[in-house]
Amino acid sequence: MPTNRRVPTLETFTYQQPVFDKDLNTPPVTPVEGDRYIVGPVPTGAWTGHAGKITYFYLAVWNFDVPAEGWLTHVNDEDKFYRHTGAAWVLMPQGDMTKAVYDTNDNGVVDAAGNFVAALNAVVLTFP
Question: Which of 18, 66, 70, 94 suits a disulfide with 74, CB 3.0-4.6 Å?
Fold first, then answer.
């Protein structure tokens, strides 16, 4: 795994680097420098008192960033994006192209019944 380097003003960016997990409460026993997590709701050990914060392992210690409203990150173990509302991390709407296919004539997107859905430059999204 390549070593991650921290940008000094990273906490000021809306998009945050991906995290491995968002609901882990106990720090990993053998973290690697650059590992990142969103601390779970009932943290223990070195993470006590830091629920919901982004933590990263750097210079042999866990460091914490307090998320700001609008922060966005990818959670690797779920393969999903989350956004911070200012109070909590919430799942972002996820796209779903399984309900539409491209037609063979490159005319656009058609559904399973063959009905025209959208032009080629469109994206079909399904919101939960």
Answer: 18
